[in-house]
Amino acid sequence: MSNATMDNPVLTHIDESGQARMVDVSNKTATARTAVAEGRIRMSSEAYALLSAQQNAKGDVLNTARIAGVLAAKRCADLIPLCHSLPLSFVGIEFFTNDTDYTITVRATCRTDYKTGVEMEAMTACSIAALTIYDMCKAADKGIVLEQIKLRYKSGGKSGEWRNDD
Amino acid sequence: MSNATMDNPVLTHIDESGQARMVDVSNKTATARTAVAEGRIRMSSEAYALLSAQQNAKGDVLNTARIAGVLAAKRCADLIPLCHSLPLSFVGIEFFTNDTDYTITVRATCRTDYKTGVEMEAMTACSIAALTIYDMCKAADKGIVLEQIKLRYKSGGKSGEWRNDD
Amino acid sequence: MSNATMDNPVLTHIDESGQARMVDVSNKTATARTAVAEGRIRMSSEAYALLSAQQNAKGDVLNTARIAGVLAAKRCADLIPLCHSLPLSFVGIEFFTNDTDYTITVRATCRTDYKTGVEMEAMTACSIAALTIYDMCKAADKGIVLEQIKLRYKSGGKSGEWRNDD
Amino acid sequence: MSNATMDNPVLTHIDESGQARMVDVSNKTATARTAVAEGRIRMSSEAYALLSAQQNAKGDVLNTARIAGVLAAKRCADLIPLCHSLPLSFVGIEFFTNDTDYTITVRATCRTDYKTGVEMEAMTACSIAALTIYDMCKAADKGIVLEQIKLRYKSGGKSGEWRNDD
Amino acid sequence: MSNATMDNPVLTHIDESGQARMVDVSNKTATARTAVAEGRIRMSSEAYALLSAQQNAKGDVLNTARIAGVLAAKRCADLIPLCHSLPLSFVGIEFFTNDTDYTITVRATCRTDYKTGVEMEAMTACSIAALTIYDMCKAADKGIVLEQIKLRYKSGGKSGEWRNDD
Amino acid sequence: MSNATMDNPVLTHIDESGQARMVDVSNKTATARTAVAEGRIRMSSEAYALLSAQQNAKGDVLNTARIAGVLAAKRCADLIPLCHSLPLSFVGIEFFTNDTDYTITVRATCRTDYKTGVEMEAMTACSIAALTIYDMCKAADKGIVLEQIKLRYKSGGKSGEWRNDD
């Protein structure tokens, strides 16, 4: 099976005839792998104020989003069709609130010791945690936006370490 | 139960003591409801070219993403903790590719005839469809970004029609 | 939306451009609907004898298959991408064993009071129940065959009653 | 625990008192394992013609069925009660259309490096892919039949290679 | 179909031949229904003290358990084989901590407007919320006990109101 | 990461700031692990008599509960938010009926060869099996109680063997 290389990148999920396929990882070696994804939720100042004002509210909203993100990481292969099921050693969800521009940044970190990377687990956990915040704040602001969900870091496997600090 | 109004918006998923809660819709009336969400996937020119060049590839990638989006809409209440399960009458996923800036816009439309809106179903379908495209193209570009996932349109229920053309 | 008619049958799950789509049932009326599907499992005389000989074995194998079939019917929309989620009023799984030709016929009956038919629920329940029997007997016969899984009966909806006694 | 042998086949999923049980694989060794299952969908000439005639239709129907099959393989242990969860290295779904007798043959190939075989994953993937084709073509022919779903090949584990070319 | 009455109670999930079956609710009428279940978690004074001492800990443990309970209620028909899927209007999980005997009482309330009761949804939500507390506290006390999980209240349907204040 | 020790027990699922977290098992070693959980279902003499009297009824009720328990064990990480997904080598569910006090004791045994214990899998399997018995007997006795669900035995991992014979 051909894999993507620097010189000859290919879409590994598409076979020679252009059909979708799952990558065969039978001959890959398990290595320690980490992936970190981030995304940002931007809301109105009113919604942000409500979230911050009510007693305990921010804590419970963020914990609910964290739990949703952790569960989504574990269910990633059920959601993303060509992903492999894999045993996650760790899923962590952190939040960084910014009182100046009314945004919350979600960071999802996933780890495994397996044959494939955990980028999709991190990206999915980040997205579902962000959607949960949207859900819990949409009564105050339907126009909340999920912005710039992207992979920030990846290590392990043949391609080694990769970092995006944009 | 208090609901958000123009004059007195509240976070309906947070009770008086700041705890997360599901909204009680026992006394709400079922009405025809629609929600439309959109998001954009931005990739490198190289990844976009690969996607467009290979025989059938774009068709199969987009159909795979569509199927993932439809399945995710139906499973929304399983993923977003405080969402109500509801019977969807329709889920549609459309793609708009832009050869100039190497982006794909995903539009998800959901419909129901029920007591609650389908914003979360549309937002979740849109996000999972976009994540599926990320998954299938990440071998060629790990830096693909999911941008500006937001609600575009909503109708039905007490609050009536709402539109965001930003 | 165009629907299949006697004179002009179409593939309702394919739109004008040939793309997969979910049918929009927003404007359909809920009616009482039933569907019955059947399939047959053919095994070696040795496997069939084992199943019949061991104390209680047949009862527990068939009950396990029944439970698997009922659960699969309820999860049909999760498995068949373009199916609508719907509230099933009833799922029944019956077995007819034939000691002469070493076959077991599985019959699945599903009922709903909803806008779409329950053919897929019955077909899926029948298939998963049959696969469960395969699983539980495969140690004695890997060559077990699932034969002739088909819809037998359907009522309700615009097309009314349909029967296949082949 | 007794296992099936040539001389003394037993139903490994049934204990001494005839009760259903999961096989204990604690002491089994992980080996590379493959299983291939096949089944056939037979439809009317009219339905087959529609599938072939419409622009892109066949491609999207088969890709949708492929995605459903891959997802079902990953979820096999959720559907078949006594199956073990296992990490699949590969799931492949191929289709062979026969314009003469209006049939489509579905072939599902699964691979793992684990303690149990992947027959059930292949059989389940094949069945769900076939059911998805049924679903997408049933508007044109309710009488579509799923025929002869069976294991074709199996390798790995103590029993080694097994092949059924019937 | 025979139903349980005061004078002639039967096991409605068992048919005349003693086989498990799903109850057919095709002819039942939808009514507003509520069910309340309660259970108690008893832990060592040390574990209870840790839970209470650490900053925020109790809040996050209980919110995590609440989210798990709400999700479990929505997934009840997936877990309890002969339960009907139904649209829940409300799921609420409350906790009552008792500093004297180191117990936490979990109360789950479910509501629907449907043809069957929501006892199982309330019982399942209560159990999974309690298990989540066990999970999060087991590092400090493996001997935590779940005690007296039972239905407390039920209304709606033919049998009307029922209350258990034992 | 700090772990619970005899001298310094902590809540491993809560971080320094009191937030819920998944334990990172990246550096743990896989060992053979077993966990046994038990619980008791207490019903009225009338319900117990019905269960025992009807032909086959007890067998099918208990087998249905067993299947529900096995499936729940495999789905534990989906239900208990901070649990790790892991490959179970074995799930066994046993029942002990007591004709004198009208109780059924459920014992669930789980095994894995992995980095974390299987207590939650055993506790969850036991609870869902018990809830299934409740569901199938509730028509005859709504007041059935689930009593004393607790861990009985645990082996493997750093903490070694643990037993609770209370």
From TrEMBL, chains A, B, C, D, E, F:
> What is the name of the protein in this document?
Cyclic pyranopterin monophosphate synthase
Report the pathway entry.
Answer: Cofactor biosynthesis; molybdopterin biosynthesis
- Family to which the UniProt record says this protein belongs: Belongs to the MoaC family.
Q: Which GO terms describe its biological process?
A: Mo-molybdopterin cofactor biosynthetic process
Keywords for this protein: Lyase, Molybdenum cofactor biosynthesis
Q: What does this protein do?
A: Catalyzes the conversion of (8S)-3',8-cyclo-7,8-dihydroguanosine 5'-triphosphate to cyclic pyranopterin monophosphate (cPMP).
Task: Report residues binding substrate.
Answer: 82-84, 120-121
Cite the GO molecular-function annotations of the record: cyclic pyranopterin monophosphate synthase activity
Q: Could you tell me the superkingdom of the organism this chain comes from? A: Bacteria
Alphabetized SUPFAM superfamilies for the sequence: Molybdenum cofactor biosynthesis protein C, MoaC
* EC primary class: lyase
The UniProt entry annotates the active site at: 135
What reaction is this protein's catalytic activity? (8S)-3',8-cyclo-7,8-dihydroguanosine 5'-triphosphate = cyclic pyranopterin phosphate + diphosphate
- What Enzyme Commission number does this protein have? 4.6.1.17
**How does this protein assemble?**
Homohexamer; trimer of dimers.
Every copy of the Molybdopterin cofactor biosynthesis C (MoaC) domain together lies at 22-157
Q: Which organism is it from?
A: Pollutimonas thiosulfatoxidans
Q: Does the keyword Lyase apply?
A: yes
Q: Which CDD domains match?
A: MoaC_PE
